[in-house]
Design brief:
about 325 residues, alpha/beta, Metallo-beta-lactamase, Chain A, Rossmann fold, 7-stranded mixed beta sheet, 6-stranded mixed beta sheet, 8 helices, Xnuc_lig_assoc, MBL, EC 3.1.-.-, exonuclease
Length: about 325
């Protein structure tokens, strides 16, 4: 008697699809790799053939050489690998992020990678896919994590600037996805002033623009005078918030955009004056609502608070288990 999904094998360094002889998001070099998105805990160099969305391949090439044999797969396109039918559908996490849908032997398995359910002007929205097995992340899989309205968090920056025009707001945001989303959300709220960038963010912001994401006017923060930067919003990597680079800024109001800003101690540890609870991952309610909507026979849980989500599944008569995959439970990248 075969077990549901026994043709897919979770390993610490990735998920192996046996009849396709391919790995999903392997953390070690693989001859054949299917990549959900460009963050470092899911994408790396050194693979042979790589299947990913065109945007993910472009992001991988911008960060490291993605490999000579790149196979772009658009949303909704179908690829046959051995006896497995593979398609990519949007995950709503960052630009180009995808859920990988695997169909074989009359079963459908969806490996969602990282995902969120909130609207995001920088990427295609998550699309639920009915399936037999759903592999879900669990970054914020605790009931305490309920993300506030995005617009309210974005408005904190402009409100702080209006109250302190002689200062600047320095926002720490991860280089891929979060920085661009902060900028695009500001634009969506009607903030049309130039936004200044730390140099480490320029390359990926430029790539987003090349790929069709409108970020408005961006200027380099390095070389700008204190007078020019007063009353401005500056976006930098989190590592730059408290280093020597930030000391030349006009009395910065230090902000950090992360779902982890829900945890006050994390904000205090990073000396964050203005915590912005802005996540590129689903919160507890969104995770459980997604599982209810998809209604899989089994849920495989990885990358985060697996135990709480497995328990929720069991209390809702959904078979579930935790996978011991290597990866980050943070939003770091």
């Amino acid at each position: 008697m075969t077990r549901l999904g026994d043709w897919v094998e979770p390993h610490p360094h990735g998920i192996y699809v046996k009849p396709a002889d391919a790995w999903i998001d392997p953390s070690e070099p693989a001859a054949r790799a299917l990549i959900t998105h460009g963050h470092a805990d899911h994408a790396r160099g050194g693979h042979g053939t790589v299947w990913a969305t065109p945007e993910t391949l472009a992001i991988m090439d911008a960060r490291f050489y993605a490999g000579q044999d790149q196979q772009p797969v658009g949303y909704g396109d179908i690829v046959r690998l051995g006896d497995v039918v593979v398609s990519f559908v949007p995950a709503g996490h960052v630009l180009g992020s995808a859920q990988i849908v695997l169909e074989h032997r009359g079963e459908t398995i969806v490996v969602s990678g990282d995902y969120k359910r909130r609207a995001d002007p920088t990427c295609a929205p998550f699309e639920p896919v009915k399936c037999d097995v759903f592999v879900t992340e669990a970054t914020f899989a605790l009931p305490v994590f309920r993300h506030p309205e995005t617009g309210d968090e974005i408005d904190k920056m402009t409100t702080a600037l209006a109250a302190n025009p002689q200062r600047c707001v320095l926002v720490g945001a991860y280089a891929l996805g979060k920085a661009q989303r902060v900028i695009a959300e500001l634009r969506r709220r009607g903030f049309d002033d130039p936004i200044y960038l730390h140099g480490a963010l320029q390359r990926l912001c430029d790539l987003y623009v090349e790929l069709g994401v409108d970020l408005g006017e961006l200027r380099p923060a390095t070389g700008a005078s204190k007078a020019e930067l007063a009353g401005r919003i500056i976006v930098s990597p989190p590592s730059a918030l408290n280093d020597r680079w930030s000391r030349r800024l006009p009395d910065p109001i230090t902000a950090m955009a992360s779902g982890w800003m829900r945890v006050r101690q994390r904000a205090r540890q990073k000396n964050v004056e203005l915590p912005l609870i802005l996540s590129d991952h689903a919160d507890w309610d969104e995770l459980t609502a997604t599982l209810t909507e998809i209604s899989p026979q089994e849920v495989w849980v990885t990358h985060g608070r697996e135990e709480a989500l497995v328990h929720w599944c069991m209390t809702h008569q959904i078979k579930a288990r935790a996978l011991a995959l290597v990866g980050y439970e943070d939003e770091d990248d």
